[in-house]
Amino acid sequence: MKEQLIKAMQRDQLLNMMYMAKDGNLSKRRIKIIKIIGDSFQAYCFARQAKRTFMIDSVLAVVPISHKDRSVVC
What we know:
The chain contains one helix and five strands. The chain has one helix at residues 2-10; strands spanning 14-20, 26-37, 40-45, 50-55, 59-64.
């Protein structure tokens, strides 16, 4: 997963991400990775409209967003 996140950051891609929080809740987020630090990464979360820190081990799936879908922000 870390390699996918690094590639997305290098390519300046937006991602749809499925994430499991510490309390076990699942969420779908649209993110743009800012930096990766060890076992976590900082990203801009469009759902929260703020920078957030995520644990790489808690990421269940990521899907790159194509350029034509970038204009539709959830």
